[in-house]
Design goal:
By secondary structure, this protein is α+β, with helices and mostly antiparallel strands. The protein has 2 helices and 9 strands. The mean pLDDT is about 85. The structure holds zinc ion.
Length: about 100
């Protein structure tokens, strides 16, 4: 399976459910349809990738991304919340 995720909009599905609900005279309530596989398959999606969490590893003169091994100059350490090479979020550990 690929690493790409397809995210479904929750509001979109809820909207569908509201619009397909029918008034039930006996129970005096709206019957909500069960969202079935077809609806889920046809729901609009956005392609996304899971957020990678990494940390900077210190080396003399450079720091290395723990995810992709990409280097950046040590002077930039505090300027990057994300690795400029692979996009990982650098929040696992603070550099001293
Ligand atoms: Zn990286």
């Amino acid at each position: 399976m690929s690493n790409k995720m397809e995210l479904i909009d929750r509001n979109e599905l809820l909207e569908y459910q509201y619009h397909s609900s029918e008034w039930n005279d006996e129970t005096q309530k709206f019957d909500l349809p069960v969202v079935d596989v077809t609806v889920i398959k046809n729901a609009p999606t956005v392609e996304a990738e899971p957020v990678k969490h990494g940390k900077w590893i210190k080396f003399p003169g450079v720091i290395e991304c723990s995810i992709c091994g990409g280097w950046i100059g040590k002077e930039h350490t505090f300027g990057y919340k994300y690795c400029p090479h692979c996009g990982a979020k650098m929040d696992l550990e603070e550099l001293e």
